[in-house]
Q: What sequence folds into this?
């Protein structure tokens, strides 16, 4: 079975659709519900479960993958930079499992988007070190070396201009300070130059909402590393979450003992 349900849980919306993990395509309508405010664990999980119900997905159909805006390790949420602080320490996988009746597998949202772009988007076949950066409320990051994910990087939180970088260069900073696109692009350029200095990547992939307007701010970029806009746009998080669930669920079914040890 290659069809999996993917969820993209964000600060403003919770989206879901059935994903064909072999083709990297949605094979159902995408359902979107507003993220409840405050975005407490109970409220978010119930809204995510409602998305699942509206799609009509059940345990008999297969697992669910969930992209989530935090560090997610061994199914638990470890950070809460742009979400309700009550999420810290919560067992994301188990909460979603209990609410939906399905096997659920959480992953950092930028990592999910990166997985999709590296397999089905503009990053496919790219060797070396690739940074997927999503510019929205914050700056999400996914790092790959020869196509292999290094999970849960938080490169939007490096100290930059006296604060964490996303306060200076996220898309929300452009909105908050009413910056012109090119002026904001110069901020992004400064940030990318800092990442170049620290990591020397082969490629920057730009995702998140700002990627749809890449043509408006790309002229402000002055970096040595090639910079490309992501291709899958708002679908990347759902597709990548589905990919993650498919791979994790297959590992659990085929080698449950090994997965249990890895999750200790």
A:
């Amino acid at each position: 079975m290659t069809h999996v349900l993917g969820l993209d849980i964000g600060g403003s919306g919770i989206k879901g659709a059935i994903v064909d993990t072999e083709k990297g395509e949605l094979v159902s309508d995408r359902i979107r519900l507003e993220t409840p405010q405050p975005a407490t664990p109970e409220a978010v999980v119930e809204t995510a479960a409602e998305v699942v119900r509206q799609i009509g997905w059940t345990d008999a159909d297969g697992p669910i993958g969930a992209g989530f805006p935090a560090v997610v390790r061994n199914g638990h949420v470890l950070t809460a930079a742009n979400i309700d602080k009550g999420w810290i320490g919560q067992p994301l996988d188990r909460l979603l499992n209990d609410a939906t009746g399905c096997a659920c597998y959480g992953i950092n949202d930028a990592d999910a988007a990166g997985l999709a772009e590296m397999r089905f988007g503009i990053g496919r076949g790219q060797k070396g070190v690739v940074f997927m950066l999503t510019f929205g409320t914050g700056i999400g990051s996914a790092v790959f070396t020869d196509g292999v994910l290094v999970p849960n990087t938080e490169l939007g939180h490096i100290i930059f201009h006296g604060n964490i970088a996303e306060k200076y260069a996220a898309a929300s900073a452009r909105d908050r300070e009413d910056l012109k696109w090119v002026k904001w692009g110069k901020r992004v350029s400064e940030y990318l130059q800092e990442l170049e200095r620290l990591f020397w990547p082969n490629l920057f992939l730009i995702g998140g909402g700002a990627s749809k307007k890449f043509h408006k701010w790309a002229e402000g970029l002055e970096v040595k590393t090639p910079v490309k806009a992501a291709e899958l746009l708002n679908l990347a998080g759902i597709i990548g979450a589905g990919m993650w669930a498919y791979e994790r669920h297959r590992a659990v079914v085929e080698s449950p003992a090994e997965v249990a040890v890895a999750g200790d």
Remarks:
- The two ends are 28 Å apart (CA to CA).
- The CA atoms of residues 196 and 225 lie 7 Å apart.
- The first strand starts at residue 3 and ends at 9.
- Confidence is low (pLDDT under 50) at residues 259-264.
